Amino acid sequence: MKKILLFLLLMVCILPTRAELSFADTKRLAEQGNKLAQYHLGMCYELGRDVTKDYTQAAYWYKKSADQGYSSAQNNIGACYKNGTGVTKDYAQAVYWFRKSANQGEAVAEYNLGVCYEWGQGVAKDYAQAVYWYKKAAEQGLAAAQYNLGLCYYAGKGVGRNAQQAVYWYKKAAEQGNADAQFNLGMCYSMGEGVAKDHTQAAYWYKKSAAQGNINASIALDAFGYNDTKKTTKENLTFTVKGVSFEMVYVEGGTFTMGATSEQGSSVYDSSNPAHLVTLSDYYIGKYEVTQGLWEAVMGSNPSEFKGSTKPVEKVNWSDCNKFINKLNSILSSQLNNMCFALPTEAQWEYAARGGKKSQGYRYAGSNSVEAVSWNSENSGHSSHEVGMKASNELGLYDMSGNIEEWCQDKYGQYSHGSQTNPTGASEGVHRVQRGGSWATYAWSTRVSHRACIEYTYRLNSIGLRLCLIVK
Question: What is the pTM of this model?
Fold first, then answer.
């Protein structure tokens, strides 16, 4: 009798795989209450496998199975609620089902729950909880979770910043073919972040990522000179308008950590956080701030309060600067080929201020001594000064710390943790970014990471501009 009972129990537990069942058989078993068949039937409806796609039916059968405790179905109905497929979007319900599934050890649900905690979807934002669930899924080998966990370690989000741990998890995900992880791992090798600098390894992972279509990796290959073709060093360019000459310094593109890096000190404003990786293409930037002499040669007038042809122009708002630039592009159009002048993006400004590929990791633009490179409220005598009177930075750029603040092209917005390529700032808002500090600001505000912003209509005697030259 015991042998017969054991045989019957085994029969109940065994269900043929989906490949062995017809749609009709799967539906029949699902209607009889078999939770595995219900899950598979939901998959059929979601994927349009042997039946017309029907997300409502998919959600219906996932929930039937989920109500019986089947973890994969619980994750899938959670995804339906999160994405609003087949049911009304409901983040709280998504979190409910992800948690049910995650508590049974379903790796994808652990990852999805981590995402909800990271972004505050259906639950209060909690980076520590996000890390907890990412780690659960990562330890089960889920590449997406390994990549996200690497991001958390790199940015110090929900866990102490640990570049070595970031590299560890990036590599785990990269070896499974995650293109974003391959790109980030390449950046860590190229910059010596969390691992010894190794250009061979950097090129290897960039190429892996680029082969999957990651445009950031393709740009990085060019920026770091990892492509097989040799990169030609470009010369600085000099232009003249009505007898006033100005020089544009070539800046070779590359990847750098933007924002509140360690050498900037512990007193940086929150607006400089989080530090994050940025990759830029080549460009040119003005050796000096735009002088009153150049402004007058282009515009025919001089709005500045502190007069002097070799002093920086000021009392110009963001729109004034772009009118000046448009007119300059028109005047020099025959010399520009496929290039044009513009205000620098905030990322272009900071990369150049830090010294680009020649950076020595200084707090200010060219030195750790603020007195060596900066005119600020402590030494300026309450006025701007002629350009180029302080020491230059590693690229030969002057006054990027102090003298006058400089308009950037970007609308102001909070930084994100993710890596970026040629970022252009926030998509909306009336505040534009200024960088560099000025004769009127405290010395600490002339650090290369410091950010400021005001409405684009303001004209102050402490704000001017520096030119950027880019490919159209």
Answer: 0.60
